[in-house]
Amino acid sequence: MSELLQVKNLYTKFHTEDGVVPAVNGISFNLKRGESLGIVGESGCGKSVACLSIMRLIGHPGQVNAEIMQLEETDLFSLSEKKMRHIRGNEMAFIFQEPMTSLNPVFTIGFQLQEAIRLHQGLNKQDSQDKSIEMLKIVGIPRAEKVFSEYPHALSGGMRQRAMIAMALSCEPKILFADEPTTALDVTIQAQILELMRDLKERVNTSIVFISHDLGVISEMVDRVIVMYCGMIVEDTNIRTLIKNPKHPYTVGLINSKPRIDVDIDKLNSIPGAVPNPLNMPKGCPYHPRCNQVMDICREKIPEKERINEGHGVTCWLFSEQGGKIKS
User: Fold this and answer.
1) Please, what's the largest Cα pairwise distance for the chain?
2) CA-CA-CA-CA torsion for 168, 171, 174, 180, nearest 10 degrees?
3) What is the four-CA torsion angle of 188, 195, 255, 289, rounded to 10 degrees?
4) Residues 116 and 73: beta-carbon distance below 8 Å
5) Long-range contacts for 317-322 (Cβ within 8 Å, ≥24 apart)?
6) Three-state SS string across the chain, please?
7) pLDDT single digits (tens) 243-291
8) For residue 121, what pLDDT is reported?
9) How far apart are CA 301 and CA 138, in angstroms?
10) Distances from the Cα of 192 to the Cαs of 156, 185, 188, 198, 262, in angstroms?
11) 109-121 vs 157-169: helix axis angle to the nearest 10?
12) Across the chain, what does the average pLDDT equal?
């Protein structure tokens, strides 16, 4: 698979009255054509902000900088806003977390679908309507012709999410960012949405970046996974290795805190402490106040990413010679 998206040293910060909030701190990753990538971590770790930064959807008071932010041969960081609008929705699309607040309540589902199709594909009114109805059918919406003329409030949460997916995929983008697309949906509908996204990925060969805090969902959807904490990538590898052999203490904590039906326990495991205030980050590794394997160097210096093996990186002093403790 060829490289589709390259991101190197992406930083996003927000200027507030209380100070500068660092939301994304120098993350780097690549995405191949047809690949599915998961980004996991606790709420506030920078998952959504990183993807919105790549889409150039961070407005004031946010500030985005990157050494490389490239879609194939296109430098996204240096594009004008006019050219970037052509990329959004056409080559890169975004499924937002809450469809009820993402869909405009005063326009019909069909009008909002047609808008993207006519803008990016230049179809006339009738052709764009036909394609919109076709997309609604593809994502499994019954009575697509009737739903086309309905307003968002008339649809259930699952139906609205399907409409959002139809809108995102209507121009057959190269990359689809899906931000917690099954949040607030019941388990049955959640499974249907995930299956739909898998089918559509195979059908149009779209690369998917799947954002979630749920490792169970991620394990069903992606080839490779990135674990984020306080705006940093702390571990990245393929999903099978991450589940079976996690290395970073934070990743281990996340996996151990997931409920299991095959183990009889009195209470769920949890990671002690809380995520630090971004306006008052601890010195050294941001995870060290919660880490059960903390060393002196963790309190003084931020670790650099270490490659354990091909395709598996960990940002932790435990795996550095400088940390004085190497684990395989």
Assistant:
1) 68
2) 0
3) -90
4) no
5) 317/285, 318/247, 318/249, 318/293, 319/247, 322/297
6) CCEEEEEEEEEEEEEECCEEEEEEEEEEEEEECCCEEEEECCCCCCHHHHHHHHCCCCCCCEEEEEEEEEECCEEHHHCCHHHHHHHECCCEEEECCCHHHHCCCCCCHHHHHHHHHHHHHCCCHHHHHHHHHHHHHHCCCCCHHHHHCCCHHHCCHHHHHHHHHHHHHCCCCCEEEEECCCCCCCHHHHHHHHHHHHHHHHHHCCEEEEEECCHHHHHHHCCEEEEEECCEEEEEEEHHHHHHCCCCHHHHHHHHCCCCCCCCCCCCCCCCCCCCCCCCCCCCCCCHHHCCCCCHHHHCCCCCEEEEECCEEEECHHHCCCCCCCCC
7) 999 999 999 999 888 777 777 777 778 888 889 998 899 999 999 999 9
8) 83
9) 51
10) 14, 10, 6, 10, 25
11) 10
12) 88
Structure tokens at 150: 């309905």
Kindly give the pairing relationship between strand 3-16 and strand 62-71: antiparallel
**Cα 228 to Cα 34: distance, rounded to the nearest angstrom:** 23
In this prediction, residue 44 carries a pLDDT of 87
The token pair at 36 is 């599915």
Query: Tokens 């469809």 sit at which residue?
Result: 99
CA dist 3 to 35, 53, 207, 233, 247, Å? 10, 19, 11, 20, 26
Extract the tokens encoding 226: 């990135």
- CATH 3.40.50.300 fits domain 3-91+173-319: yes
Residues of the chain with pLDDT under 70: 1, 99-100, 184, 322-328
Tokens representing 3 are 């490289």
Task: Reply yes or no: is the peptide bond before residue 61 cis, omega within 30 of 0.
Answer: yes
